[in-house]
Amino acid sequence: VTDATVRKADAIVRSDPDVETVFSASGTTLNLRGTTTSLTPHLGSLTVRLKENRRRSTQEVIGDIQRKLGQGLVGARAVATPFDLVAQIIAGGNQNVEVDLFGSDLE
């Protein structure tokens, strides 16, 4: 169930014209924030790289992605936040998006 939900979230996010790439993981807390790799069957995450030459701001893209995920993922809670490890460390700013998915383990 979690994997299917993460795949659906991945497809929703990839459909945004301002998204360059998506890295997704299901059943684990593994993501680019460097958190643990423990098995958590009811969690998933997506790390999203936005196109550099886009029309909308990061916040506008996040709002749109959050709305689409809220409409498209029944029974799951998706939280989209700005995140860019390199920009955070070097410049103190964000240019990319992290999406965390939460829900019950339905299996």
List strands and helices in order, with pairings:
Blueprint: H1 2-14, E1 19-28, E2 39-50, H2 58-72, E3 76-82, H3 85-90, E4 97-103
Antiparallel strand pairs: 1-2, 2-4, 3-4
Order of helices and strands: HEEHEHE
Based on CA inertia axes, which overall geometry fits? Answer: globular
> Using only CA atoms, what is the Rg?
13 Å
What about the largest sheet?
A: 4 strands, antiparallel
Low-confidence stretches: none
Number of strands: 4
| Strand percent estimate | 25-35%
Distance between the termini: 7 Å
Strand order, main sheet: write it out. Answer: 1-2-4-3
Q: Average the pLDDT over all residues and give the rounded result.
A: 75
Class by alpha and beta content:
alpha+beta
Tell me the helix content. Answer: 25-40%
Number of helices: 3
What can you tell me about this protein's structure?
The protein is of the alpha+beta class and 107 residues long. The protein is 32% helix and 34% strand. It has three helices and four strands, in the order H-E-E-H-E-H-E. It has a four-stranded antiparallel sheet. Helix 1 (2-14) packs across helix 2 (58-72).
Features:
alpha+beta; four-stranded antiparallel sheet; single chain; 107 residues
In short:
This protein has 107 residues and is an alpha+beta fold.
